Amino acid sequence: MSRRDEKRQAYASQLVPQKQNLDADKKGAAHLVCGLCKHYLETSWSADGRGSCSILKFGSNISANPPVYVLEGKEGFLTKTLSDASACKQFEKMQLIDKDGYECSDPVYRRTLRQLQEKE
Amino acid sequence: MKQEVLVSDIQKFAVNDGPGIRTLVFLKGCPMRCAWCHNPETQAPFPEIYWKFRLCVQCGACMDVCPKNAILPPISPKDAQSEGSAYHKILRDKCDRCLACVEACRYDALTVVGKSMTADEIIDEVEKDRPFYKNSGGGLTLSGGEPTCHPDFAAQILQAAKQRGIHTCLDTNGFCEWDVLEKMLENVDLALFDLKHTDAAIHKQHTGVGNEKILENLARLSETDVDIWIRIPVVPGFNDSKAFHTHAAEFLSRFKNQISRVDLLPFHNWCQDKYGWLGIDWPLKDTEATDPSFLEIPADMYREKGLAATVGGSGFEKTAKWASG
Amino acid sequence: MAQAALKDTSVKEFEKKQEWWWAAEKKRSKRLDYLRKAIWKKGAIGGLYAPGVKVDLERAQLHTQKAKEMEMSPDAYVIKFAKMFAHILDNKTIFITDHAQLVGYTGSLPHTMGWDPSAASILNEEAFNDPTAIPDPVDVNQKVIREINNYWIGKTDLDKMMPVFDMEDLMKMLSGSIGWGVPLARGGYSSKDYEYIMTGKRAFAAIIDELDRKIDEVDEEVHQPGANAEISKAYDKLNNWDAMKITLEAGIRIAKRYARLARIIAENFEEDPKRKEELLKIAQTCERVPAHPPRNLQESFQYDIFIQMMSRTEAIEGAWPSRPDYYHGPYYDKDVNIDKTLTREEALDLVGEFIIRAAEVCQFKPKWTREGLQGIDGTWVWTIGGVDRNGKDACNDLTVALMQAARLVRVANPTLSFRWHPKVKDEVMREIFECNRQGLGYPNMRNDPILVANTMHWYGHPIEEARLWANQACLSPCPTTKHGFQPMRMANATANCAKIIEYVFTSGFDPVVNMQVGAETPDVATFKNFEEFFAAWTLQMQTIFSILVRAVNRARTLAPTMTPRPFLSGVSERSIESGLDTLDPSIERGNSWITAFTWVENVDSLAAVKKLVFEDKKYTLAQLKEALAKNWEGLEEMRLDFVKNAPKWGNDDDYVDDIMLRCLDEAAKFSKVLKDPSGNNWPILPENVSGNIHYANIVGALPNGRRLGDALYDGGISPGPGLDKKGPTAVLKSCGKIDHITGGRAFLLNQRLSPTQLAGEKGYQLWSSYIRTWADLGIDHIQFNMVDDATLRSAQKDPEKYQEVIVRVAGYSAHFVDVSRKTQDNIIQRTVQGLG
Predict the structure, then answer these.
(1) For C677, which of C122, C585, C606, C643 could close a Cys bridge (C-beta 3.0–4.6 Å)?
(2) How far apart (Å, rounded) are the C-alpha atoms in residues C220 and C680?
């Protein structure tokens, strides 16, 4: 696979929208997601759930079986807030500030607010 | 050794110091010691050291380099900055102003006030705002301190300004020999003449000098064709009485054909920090700043005498003489 | 009698205390007061909409429903699109606000925000993810939104356009590091051919007749014996014209729906005879416009609102280019001065309401837009004043009335932008002054002679057209003429310029989004002199600008066929004439520009590197590179060195001012290398909107002493906060060194004023002198933000930033920064009171 193809695949996961499961329930932390990890960097630019991992690098793939961990290189691993991270061994749960579970169910929403507040 | 004349500040966008938008040049050195002086750093002609307590982290670097043991050891910054603290880093009577401490300070807490500049350098700086002068009738206002303390240098500055087509104001307290003042006048468009008090004894008590010479100079000035604005800083407990204003208005009305206007300047105490930075205990620091609206009634007293009067001295005031017969 | 006296005294009291909102409340008519309070605050703060403001599901559902119905339709795409547009207008809920005289709103109810689900899936995702903006019940409606979103996946404009962009370029843009916006024709903002539709010569019915004529003519031609390339293209023209007709007819129909509603209310529900009359007047107005040209002021405003409403149904318009006094002025004159059918007060009610109708407009926007636009839905900058095509003063009674109304209704949006020229009358200048003094923050001043020349220089607009310019968004002039107007300004050509200097140190790698975004310039530690460093800077600048511009060019080229705008085309002479969609670059002259956010940081950073690294040789580039990568951690002394001991822009200091000129020069040169699809140039326009807040978390440490997360500069060519140490005159002097005709498109300059400076007649004289000097220096823009008590209180946290507004006192060598808090308090109090 050429570098250009590799990039294409990685970008596609960010750019191409996925249809949502109509029966999925938004409440409660059903499983481990990238958005709950300490190392996740949410893009403060949009609220549609995109971001990157600050530990894993480009070429990683945590939904593959077995997962691929690339720790060298410059470019980051692009992922989404609600990406399934249950297989990721780099996962470290971040400290949550919200007790009612709302943060778990919508980390995008809460984290953004917190990022803004912290800057004051 | 000839003392160089020092500049303590060049302040742009001055809108209360003559007509239009002006640049104020402050020279160090003054023969008077007015109790309310709001530029205490301009009184002495030599360079002085500011110690700014709010910026001092009490690192002690200054103490380490002082050759005269004129610097106090550090205390906690919080204590030093607390209200009413008597702590002042420099022991002024021991300090000989070698400026080693200023060199050593990395936090800008110790700085020198008083910079040496040539007349041309000063006017180069003043000239930068020429577009503003053109569109507002503004220019240079030479102040201090007292410019007539340094007649040659002051004359040079005014001449350079006029040569470059810049309108000039001379802000003076009038305490000098007449011929000193007279020589400068050829390059002065407008004189901002400070009047502190008409009573000689009271004047001497609060400024350190009598006012006879000053009043004489004013009389002679009014015989030249230089335009005059009178500036009266109104200080509580000194010249804020009805009696004073009545007398002053009467006195000034004698020259009403030469005096374009009288500016009553409300007292303020915002300079108290500057005193603190110089290590001077200022007796007026707790006197509240005067609300300018309080000076409207005194201002009317001048207007009734046929003099145009303002409160604050804005350079954009359209003053028409009070019509009174 | 006594009541009136009390009312007056109170207004005066409020004004004396500078409580402008309360003064306005007392002063304005009952009607305006009601209407002002009846609208919802639609601007988002901190990226979140105000409570109660909800996404409009109705429009999204109507749109989706019709799209599903037409999946099997044989119509060309543009006609399908026009039919969806018509379906929305024919079926949406309409309402008339009590006491209103003007109607028309993009949402179904006053608290709703228009949501176009066909524009971008990423926007739809945000609608889903924002529970505060979803109408109750939230879980039910989230499912509704999910269904809508799932239908549109793969079908939205952006989804269709994505494959045609270069994926790498697109990814860089969407990372949010270097730019802003998405290159979508229906996601940007359109200027209009006002000379065609707003001069009273024609309205929709006449245009429909013209379209019918052209359709018949060409239809006949293409069915004659013969075939060639022209004929092949003609089929598209026929489709375009058909689509335009559909939209215009829908426009007339919805107006009639409003008329019908007004009559129903008047006949069945309204008791008050006066209000009945008003409702009947509304009905008559909506029966007249937009079908026929307006005859009076109410009809003229109503016509304008309908056009805007329809334009905003067709696309997510992020701005509101217009010249309201120029085009509506004649009707004001007619009603108030000639026919005397309106008193000045009655006219003021209409003018005030017109402003309020604009203030209430809102369309759901993505988070990054909201953050960059803090508190407003878009930049509705209305252009007033200026000259006519012959260069004569165009100010009229409506120019004044707009400013008076603005002071009464006090909205954050629309704002006014005044085209200043040397012959503006004192009366008008005093109105401008009064608006600024009362803390509106507008009108800002534009230097008309400079900008007319600028417009001609960059795009070759002929002078009569250049003189007819209106702001396309906040700052960029655009003629409102047949070939001059820009149908789509894609905000995508907006660059986060601070990244240029950042990338010099990281060789183009963006540490915040973890991607290679900029050019792979050599390791900064290898540069041996300033020239090499500057060359790398230039390359990064060119690279970033190119990525953004390429995308916009691509989108502009494909927009006419992929995302056409039949309604906008239907009110554009060049489309009626040619049969091409108005987005087609071949029929316009091009009026493109790159908005340059965070520009001045580059200048200050370059100056710091030049001085501290190359001249003083205090640090090496390797050390600086490491310090920046560490975000100055543990290197506070070094950081302060870069803050304090390197010269900064805005101090009338040639050392750094020359660097500004050099940077602009490089950009201007490159602006002529970049070409838009119309073949015209891409000059830059330094300004910020609220980008300086939004990008604070995206831009890393910089050589001007900035840390990641610090607020960026105000914008445009305004100096960094607190870094202009020589006062406002030095700032103007620095800015005056730039050539505002050839140096770039326009340059934003913000200045703060305090109540002391503007008090009384002498305040006016001071301000006038200041404006004359500004004009003399050839600066193209200035905007005054009045500081109030609250702002100044915050001054105590950062006193350096507020030096220029502090009250100035006679003969006093002032210090504000290092003085005690108590002294600052006193000075601030005096400043706020406006006492000198």
Answers:
(1) C585
(2) 36
> Which residues in chain B are closer than 8 Å to C811, comparing Cβ atoms?
16-17, 24, 38-39, 143, 171, 231, 265
Give the bridge partners for B22, in sequence order. Answer: B14
Residue ranges making up the domain that contains C630: 496-547+596-748
Question: What is the phi/psi pair of residue B175, to 5°?
Answer: -95, 85
How many domains are contained in chain A? 1
Facing B14 at nearest CB: one of C772, C808, C836:
C808
Does one domain contain both C529 and C676? yes
Same-domain status, C703 and C784: no
Residues in chain A: 120
pLDDT band, residue C7 (cuts 50/70/90): low
Q: Quick check: A46 and C367 CB within 8 A? A: yes
Indicate if C794 and C672 belong to the same structural domain: no
Q: Does A108 touch chain C (CB under 8 A)?
A: yes
Residue C87 CA from chain centroid, whole number: 29
> Per-residue pLDDT tens for C307-344?
999 999 999 888 999 999 999 999 999 999 999 999 99
Q: Do C810 and B265 touch (CB under 8 A)?
A: yes
Q: Is residue C153 within 8 angstroms of chain A, CB to CB?
A: yes
CATH topology of domain B48-113: Alpha-Beta Plaits (3.30.70)
A74 touching C (Cβ < 8 Å): yes
Q: What is the mean pLDDT of chain C?
A: 91
Residue C528: HSE in the Cβ half-sphere, 13 Å Cα cutoff:
0
**C175·A48 Cβ contact <8 A:** no
Domain assignments of chain B as residue spans, ordered by start: 6-44+117-270+285-311, 48-113
Quickly count: other Cβ atoms within 10 Å of residue B33's Cβ: 12
CA-CA distance, C413 to C420, in Å (whole number)? 21
Q: How far apart are CA C768 and CA B120, in angstroms?
A: 31
Q: Read off the tokens for C339.
A: 């026919």
Structure tokens at C669: 């040169």
8 Å CB contact of C697 and A43: no
The reply to whether C535 and C683 lie within a common domain is yes
* Residue C729 contacts B where some CB pair is shorter than 8 Å: yes
Which residues neighbour C829 within 8 Å (Cβ) at sequence distance 6 or greater? none
Residue C349 lies in a domain: yes
Name the residue among B254, B239, B244, B271 with its Cα closest to residue B305: B254
Torsion C37-C42-C43-C44 (CA) sign: positive
Contact state of C822 with B268 under an 8 Å Cβ cutoff: no
Is the minimum CB–CB distance between C170 and chain A shorter than 8 Å? Answer: yes
Q: Is the per-residue pLDDT at B101 higher than 70?
A: yes
Whether residue A45 lies inside any domain: the answer is yes
Is residue C744 domain-shared with residue C757, that is, in the same domain? no
Chain A, residues 3-42, CB within 8 A of chain C, namely 4, 7-8, 11-12, 14-20, 22, 26, 41
C373–chain A Cβ distance below 8 A for any pair: no
Torsion of CA B203, B207, B208, B213, to 10 degrees: -60
pLDDT in tens, C716-748: 999 988 888 888 899 999 999 999 999 999 999
- What is the domain extent for residue A35? 3-13+29-118
- How confident is the model over C670-689, as a mean pLDDT? 94
* C-alpha–C-alpha distance, residues B297 and B321, integer Å: 16
Indicate if C380 and C513 belong to the same structural domain: no
C142 and A26 within 8 Å at the Cβ level: the answer is yes
Looking at domain B6-44+117-270+285-311, its CATH superfamily turns out to be: Aldolase class I (3.20.20.70)
**Is A touching B (3+ C-beta pairs, cut-off 8 A)?**
no
The number of distinct structural domains making up chain C is 4
Question: Which strands make up the sheet holding A50-57, listed edge to edge?
Answer: A40-42, A50-57, A76-80
The shortest CB-CB distance from C812 to any of B20, B39, B83 is to B39
Rounded Cα–Cα distance for residues C392 and C423 (Å): 9
